[in-house]
UniProtKB/TrEMBL annotation:
Entry annotated with the keyword Cell membrane: no
Source organism of the structure: Algoriphagus ratkowskyi
Pfam families, alphabetized: SusD-like_2
Keywords: Lipoprotein, Signal
Protein's UniProt name: SusD/RagB family nutrient-binding outer membrane lipoprotein
Signal sequence, start to end: 1-27
Length: 529
């Protein structure tokens, strides 16, 4: 077997591209895995985070290769010209996303390997790194599980641990629900443990230096842990297997903010911030990633929703076409492709705002934000019959989302889109009173759940594309019409991604066990709509 393919498909280490890193605090700290004797837990922790940077920071690879033809279309966050086979995730997108995750996993395994070689005293001193690393790893594991379902996990990424023995390193598939159980169990333990850690002064300094996500802030890691628990519990809350657990643990988290703090305001958003331009972790290629091949054209449904309801976020999220005379126009997905193409050429279609989003070189890598946390809380309290509390969280989510987009614009170094219309208390109040937005105007729990789903869709848009698609599938409340592709068995958006072809080629013994469920029409276990 070709050695390069082995390295990719048995989930080994991804090192290329990191050697030229120019960030002062990072350049000397990333470990070359061939020199593990010289590394530390802290350096491996940073290396693990860096290896996954293109799945967090807006990148050409993530937006153009992957999201442009998958989640951005499946949620109609964008408009596009209909083509045959458009609802089948492309092999490049599937392969790249899969390989990226498993290269990231391999770095996590290296960190575990280094940690396991420490004395008990050193393990205790470095425990905070392992809690933070597992939290970050679980966040991204959930994303891959929610794309595919069952994945190789418990046994995966072990080539280095197995001494380079390929025959021992082909990984079996774990059930998606079992992976969720393991992650939820661990995160619940972390939520308690991290508050009781005794961290010495030297570790505090090292953690602050090596932590690219929360800059060593333990309180922020507590919020990350508990907010991630909320996200995972909410995702599985409708299943018979997890419903009781989800109800109990979500109630515990939301009712004990001192013990289980969450991301409740925009100052606590979990994000990978960009502090200087021209480094390996900048977002300079966000522009081409989102804008190339008209990838940032506004979808008609999402744009119309914002325009009709006078959404205060409108001028932050979108801008009018250069020949539209100030009119907001989205691309209708039900149009004939020839007509769509003609409309694109008129340059009248609205696009995502250059200055807030795609040309904002300080755009952060977003992990969890306050608006989505409040929407999760609103959903929980709605289902528990606590309408007033649900309404409070719903309206707080909208306000926090407005503030979030104002923040994104405020840190931008680009002004091409022109000044946005700054929201006032009156404009926000008027928005919340609109018939299509108002909590009080909704006459049933189902209608109120639809309001929550709509706000998730509006808040996530292309910013958190995969989260948008996962929640759209789970809730099944956003009313979207799709062009029917009669050229393919997959006539509308899929329910999951298929596994990459490499699994059949290099991991066939394990793949055959999941092959019967490897269909685009098979839902992930939590998708019960």
């Amino acid at each position: 077997m070709n050695m390069n393919f082995k390295k990719i498909f048995i989930y080994t280490l991804l090192i290329s591209g990191l050697a030229s890193c120019t960030i002062d605090d990072f350049a000397d700290d990333y470990s070359d895995p061939s020199k593990l004797a010289n590394t530390t837990v802290g350096k491996q922790f940073t290396g693990m985070i860096m290896s996954n940077r293109q799945s967090v920071l807006p990148s050409y690879w993530d937006y153009f290769v992957i999201k442009r033809i998958t989640s951005n279309r499946f949620t109609q966050s964008v408009g596009w010209v209909n083509i045959e086979n458009q609802y089948v995730p492309g092999s490049a997108a599937v392969n790249d996303r899969w390989n990226s995750y498993y290269n990231f996993m391999a770095q996590y395994r290296e960190l575990q390997k280094v940690y396991d070689g420490l004395t008990d005293v050193k393990k205790q001193e470095n425990r905070v790194f392992m809690i933070a690393a597992a939290t970050y790893f679980y966040d991204h594991t959930q994303q891959v599980v929610d794309l595919h379902g069952d994945i190789p996990w418990t046994e995966a990424g072990m080539l280095s641990t197995n001494g380079g023995d390929y025959s021992k390193s082909y990984a079996g598939y774990d059930k998606a629900s079992d992976i969720y159980t393991k992650m939820l169990d661990d995160l619940a333990g972390f939520a308690t443990e991290i508050g009781s850690l005794q961290i010495n002064a030297a570790t505090v300094v090292e953690f602050k230096t090596q932590d690219l996500i929360n800059n060593g802030n333990i309180d922020m890691w507590k919020k990350y842990i508990n907010s991630l628990r909320l996200k995972m519990l909410t995702r599985v809350s409708g299943t018979s297997e997890f419903s009781a657990r989800a109800k109990s643990e979500i109630a515990s988290i939301l009712s004990n903010p001192s013990q289980f703090p969450i991301v409740a305001d925009n100052a606590s958003n979990i994000m990978w911030d960009i502090y200087s331009l021209g480094t390996v972790i900048g977002t300079n290629d966000f522009r081409s990633g989102l804008e190339d091949w008209n990838g940032n054209i506004a979808g008609k449904a999402i744009l119309d929703h914002m325009v009709v309801n006078e959404d205060p976020r409108l001028t932050y999220v979108f801008q009018t076409g250069i020949k539209a005379n100030g009119a907001y126009i989205g691309l209708d997905p039900l149009m004939n492709p020839t007509v769509q193409n003609e409309l694109v050429l008129t340059q009248t279609l609205s696009v995502y705002n250059f200055s807030t989003i795609s040309r904002n070189q300080y755009f952060p890598g977003i992990l969890i934000t306050a608006p989505e946390v409040h929407l999760m809380a609103a959903e929980f309290y709605l289902k528990e019959g606590q309408d007033a509390t649900a309404k409070m969280h719903f309206e707080e989510a909208v306000k926090k989302s407005i503030g979030f987009y104002q923040y994104l614009r405020s840190i931008s170094n680009n002004a091409e889109a022109g000044a946005p219309v700054v929201p006032t208390e009156q404009s926000i109040s008027s928005y919340l009173s609109m018939d299509e937005i108002s909590w009080s105007a909704a006459s049933s729990k189902d209608e109120k759940l639809s309001l929550i789903a709509d706000q998730k869709w509006l808040h996530f848009n292309v910013i958190q594309s995969n989260e948008n698609w996962h929640e759209l599938r789970r809730l099944g409340k956003v009313d979207l019409d799709f062009w029917t592709d009669n050229s393919n068995q997959q006539k509308t958006p899929p329910s999951r991604w298929m596994y990459p072809g490499s699994e059949q080629t290099y991991n066939m013994e394990n793949y055959v066990k999941v092959q019967p469920q490897d269909k685009l029409t098979n839902s992930i276990f939590w998708d019960i709509n």
